[in-house]
Write a structure and sequence with these properties.
2 copies of one chain form a homodimer. Chain A has 2 domains: 79 residues, Orthogonal Bundle (Arc Repressor Mutant, subunit A), CATH 1.10.10.10; 46 residues, no CATH class. In chain A, β1 and β2 form a beta hairpin. The relative contact order of chain A is 0.15. Chain A has 7 helices and 2 strands, in the order ααααββααα. The first copy, chain A, is mainly alpha-helical. Helix content of chain A is 61%, strand content 6%. Chains A and B meet through α1, α6 and α7 of A and α1, α6 and α7 of B. The first copy, chain A, binds a DNA duplex through α2 and α4. Chains A, B: It comes from Geomobilimonas luticola. Chains A, B: Keywords: DNA-binding, Transcription, Transcription regulation.
Chain lengths: 155, 155
DNA sequence: GACGAATTATTGGGATGCAAATATTATTAG
DNA sequence: CTAATAATATTTGCATCCCAATAATTCGTC
């Protein structure tokens, strides 16, 4: 019961392309704004909700706290973020944007996610359904249903 | 002309899941075979065609030579790969698998790509078309048509 | 043949990413 | 109240990844 699945390698290549264009986009943003994709991603989250704790930020970025600490070190070093010991819980750290940090967010280019959202908006209902259901199927194939989403390099 | 696009964040989350499960898969392979995804990926390429030069291997892996050098250092350190100065061009290096290296490749688990191929085979024609066309649309949205596919962490 | 340009692999420095171990503080059990 | 436990952020060590600079070799041009 073999089927004609000539498009299979193409699907995989397309997955690669999507992945690459997103990381590529992250690098472009890095050159124009001076900060990396993950750094900008962290700033954007803090711009929406702050103060935030390290663990909360890590959760929203789908990253481990240990990873976020390094990103925060560099953001703090650039004077874009402040770390303050929380008064309620002295184990925790309150993260806040500096004025400079808010500036960077305001001037930063859109992240790839916005590109995706806009592109998806332009699709017809039928096309949108194909993308949506197609991704669902891919996720199911990989048994990724229960997986926590990953960063996508600041998409 | 607003459309109901509630599934948009879900699509993006699904993209994240797909990438994560692939990197996750790479880590599983690391635990069972003792080597990492990119390392196994390099071995598999060398198993198919060798000798190979560093630049050629890098090209086939869609990685920079500088990156591949590090991977080769570790593979050589484990005694899975040999580096020999080429006689025709003394700038170049001939890469070969050792017997131990061939052994590892033979016993290594399938990479994520195989998982995808098998999963795609199980779909009905209608489902397959959705995945295929859905990915096409995503690629077009991102303007990724002209992009050379990237590695996907040894997928 | 000689000198500049291109090619090849490597090194060095920076940024993600993870897991495991650590120090500090909070909470819970007894 | 005290001791064990859990939560929080960090540090350390490792493996990818990139770019830029370097050293060695080859090629091309004069």
């Amino acid at each position: 019961m073999k089927k004609n699945r000539a498009a299979t390698p193409e699907i995989i290549d397309n997955l690669r392309r999507v992945f690459q264009v997103i990381t590529e986009y992250s690098k472009t943003a890095e050159k124009t704004s001076g900060i990396t994709g993950p750094q900008l991603w962290a700033l954007k989250i803090l711009a929406k909700t702050s103060p935030l704790r390290v663990s909360e930020l890590a959760h929203q970025m789908y990253l481990r706290p240990a990873t976020v600490v390094g990103i925060l070190d560099r953001l703090e070093g650039k004077g874009l973020v402040t770390r303050t010991r929380s008064k309620e819980d002295r184990r925790a750290i309150d993260l806040n944007l500096t004025e400079k940090g808010k500036d960077v967010v305001a001037k930063a280019p859109e992240v790839a996610q916005v590109m995706l959202i806009r592109g998806l908006e332009e699709l017809t209902d039928e096309q949108f359904t194909k993308v949506s259901e197609g991704m669902d199927l891919l996720v199911r194939i990989l048994g990724a249903d229960a997986i926590t989403p990953q960063p996508l390099h600041s998409a």
